[in-house]
Amino acid sequence: MAKAKAKSKSKAKANANELLDALLALEKQKGIPREVLIEAIEAALVTAYKRNFNQAQNVRVDLNLDNGTMLVFSRKDVMEEVLDSRLHISLEDAKQVNPAFELGDIVEQEVTPRDFGRIAAQTAKQVVTQRVREAERGMIYEEYVDREEDIVNGIVERLDARNIYVGLGKVEAVLPVNEQILTETYRPHERIKVYITKVERSTRGPQVFVSRTHPGLLRRLFEMEVPEIYDGIVEIKSIAREAGDRSKISVVAHNQDVDPVGSCVGAKGSRVQTIVNELNGEKIDIVEWSEDPVIFVANALSPSKVLDVQIHEDEKSTTVVVPDYQLSLAIGKRGQNARLAAKLTGWKIDIKSETDARELGIYPSQASESFNHVDEEYEENNDENYDLYKEEE
């Protein structure tokens, strides 16, 4: 009998040492404090004791990894009248345990079942597994919630009727149908850049939602490709995007010696072309921002030449006059150029041809004088843009 007890204690000690080693490893690898795991195991053992031994009393489990013991103690309140023997003990019975007990004290007595060690080992394993899973999910959530509004590389893993699922390494992100570019085809194992719009907690772990249409994707691509933007020398002031087709961005330089548009375009268009390629041919107009709405609206309608911009402050609107032959260029296909310019500037834009404006008596105006000194190179560039535009149509 003594040998059996010694053998049982030795086995318990070995199991406790094994559990302690596992907890220490988890603390080092997963960053889960050992005390947190021990507390969780003890709470789970209380539940396991009540479930497996059909007990309803108030108990406490003491997990001592140093000596390899897992003991269960009943906890009873010392009362004058015992209403429930599982929860209460009389003062007389309490003093038999320890003469120092008084009314209102709590008496603890060991009630560890004989085969509690086996149940305890199974419970501990389950708790550790669950806590490790929760900790990993928590760490993944913290990692990706800090990357909201950032761009990441992913691999298309699978597709269903509506969503695309993109592998980001530790987590699978959702690319909803309304965040997909209609002109793009997504194939399994294809590498794509996506913009993280939202990270949420769920019962199955963190859920990451990404986008290919968000204006933030365009902003991040320029920050990656243009050092002047990354360093803060050039700032992107606004973006108007119709994903997959055309976008406009306005930029300003905080150094008068730096050309903001040229910095974004790059030598022979190399910088902007890299971004266009990443977006599968989406056309990008880069214009210079100005605090003067007259100049800003004129710039925003690029590549069209502007003769006059009249501001209506009360309505937050403008009337823009363009040469007759560039009216279609200013408006754009299906009104796209004017629509994007309005989004970019925040002003409503009503475009008139020069002939119509003269007939209405609104051109020339005093404001038009600032647009009359256009050099030949500017006109030549806009003529080339116009020819390209007509080819696209």
TrEMBL record:
Alphabetized UniProt keyword annotations: Cytoplasm, RNA-binding, Transcription, Transcription antitermination, Transcription regulation, Transcription termination
**InterPro entries cross-referenced by the UniProt entry:** KH_dom, KH_dom-like_a/b, KH_NusA_2nd, KH_sf_prok-type, NA-bd_OB-fold, NusA_N_sf, S1_domain, TF_NusA
Tell me which Gene3D superfamilies the record gives: 3.30.300.20, Nucleic acid-binding proteins, NusA, N-terminal domain
Compositional bias, Acidic residues, is annotated for 376-393
Residues of the region (Disordered) are 369-393
Superkingdom is Bacteria
- Can you give the residue ranges of the S1 motif domain? 149-213
Where found?
Cytoplasm
Per the record, the similarity remark reads: Belongs to the NusA family.
The function of this protein is: Participates in both transcription termination and antitermination.
State how it assembles: Monomer. Binds directly to the core enzyme of the DNA-dependent RNA polymerase and to nascent RNA.
Name the chain's protein.
Transcription termination/antitermination protein NusA
Which species is this UniProt entry from?
Paenisporosarcina macmurdoensis
